[in-house]
Amino acid sequence: MRKVTKIEQTSIKKNKSKKLKVAAYCRVSTDSDEQLESLETQKTHYENYITSRNDWQFAGVYYDEGISGTDKAHRPELKRLIQDCRAGKIDMIITKSISRFSRNTTDCLALVRKLLELNIPVWFEKENINTGSMESELFLSILSSMAADESLSISLNSKWSIKKRFENGTFKISYPPYGYNWDGETMTINPKQAEIVRRIFSEALSGKGIATIAAELNREQIPTKRGGHWSPSGIRGMLANEKYCGDCLYQKTWSDSAYKRHLNHGEQTQYLQQNHHEPIISRKDWEAAQKLISQRANEKNISKGNEKYQNRYAFSGRIICGECGAAFKRRINYTTDGSYAAWSCKTHLADKDRCSMLFIRDNDLKLAFTTMMNKLIFAHRLILKPYAESLKQNSTSQTLIRIQQLETKLAENADKRKTLTKLMAQGFIDQVIYSQQTSELLSQADGVRKQIDALKNTTSSETAALMQTKDLLHFVEKSKMLEAFDDRIFTRFVERIVIHSRHEAAFKLKCGLTLTERM
């Protein structure tokens, strides 16, 4: 007979389960008193709710005030929350709703996936979604899209409301320019700042340059409205601001469908309300300042708009310092024999200890470009033709084959996810396995999409380089030797110039070649 020995049960003390470190995220889209009061209510609610749970440990409340949820790039507290998650300070996040977390579908899903990679789930209270136990991302994607549509609707309603206030003259300027205060209803003159405004207009009309005015104000330690330093562009903006003569021009800027703000150069209707508030500058002086600005712009060949310097000089914005990476600025140097145009590194002009790069004469740079182009005209068969052939051979064929392979892989990935869904629906696999494998497949699909995008960008850049090379080759084959600098040829073929020293410049051509020339 077999002998069986009974081993009595011993009591084993169970370890207390580790508490989850739970944090909350809140956001309000405006900084009005009502919204800030709502924010305080949310903060109190989450702090009390988290601390009331025995299995949770309060890890803080993160909140952004008066910030739109359409773009995560401008929400500092959300960024800090993600950083603390990476540092292991948080195990779970609670937020009121998807629309409070993000109204941009792409951003929302990207944030959720990023947090799931760190094994940190997000619980959306309103929708009752916990990303740690969700069967798929489909439901979250749909709700995020609804939140994005809601955001667009709110934005359109808000724009319509603001436009109506523009039209009937009831729009309130809550943040007036330097020289004015806001009393809750209208703009009132700040006497101390108004004296500085009058001084700026007076000195500008007397012929003093805006850079000199800014330097003098900084030397006297007179602060700007936000306590910073004066700049020439800031002074010019003040001189052009119609508010100083009592008028108010509405809709100077506008936002596109991606919520990016642009200066209004006629794309949207503007509204001018005259005698809106008490002026600091007489209308006569303000109009004289506008004529002065226009006159100086004409003298320097500056056109109004985002590309205001594009027609000024061929080299403008295209010369880069090889030592510090700063752009070069055109200056007029004076000698006993006269004057000449030169290009100087902006860093060197501001602080010679930070950059030792010396100025380059404008004529020397033009001669270097002309010499470089003549060498290309003379030896294009040895330089450009082999380069063009190599671009043809290495460009699209292999890249397109690789893109097709990746797209096939992406389709196989989608089929696997469909199969998983069917298996779970029929009860062959449980929810945990389904969630894990679906998450892995989605991550793989994202990686494949990124590879496809990168290859497509490479293909387009290679194609562009080949087209630019053919254009340059066609030009040099037909052209005679250049006798002088031609700015049209320069802007047609050169992307930028990198200055390595006063005696050496590298011309980076649009076709991808970089040719170095001595000066």
Summary keywords:
519 residues; alpha/beta; Hect, E3 ligase catalytic domain fold; 3 domains; five-stranded mixed beta sheet; four-stranded mixed beta sheet; Resolv_N; DNA_bind_recomb_sf; DNA binding
What features would you describe in this structure?
- GO terms for molecular function: DNA binding; DNA strand exchange activity.
- The protein is of the alpha/beta class.
- The protein folds into three domains: 20-153, Resolvase, N-terminal catalytic domain (Rossmann fold, 3-Layer(aba) Sandwich); 180-299, Hect, E3 ligase catalytic domain fold (Alpha-Beta Complex); 366-518, no CATH class.
- It is built from 14 helices and 18 strands.
- The strands form six sheets. Strands 2-1-3-4-5 form a five-stranded mixed β-sheet, with helices on both faces. A four-stranded mixed β-sheet has the order 12-16-17-18. A three-stranded antiparallel β-sheet has the order 13-14-15.
- Strand 1 (20-27), helix 1 (33-51) and strand 2 (56-64) form a beta-alpha-beta unit.
- Helix 6 (191-205) packs across helix 9 (283-299), helix 7 (210-219) crosses helix 8 and helix 12 runs antiparallel to helix 13 (431-478).
- The protein is flat and about 120 Å long.
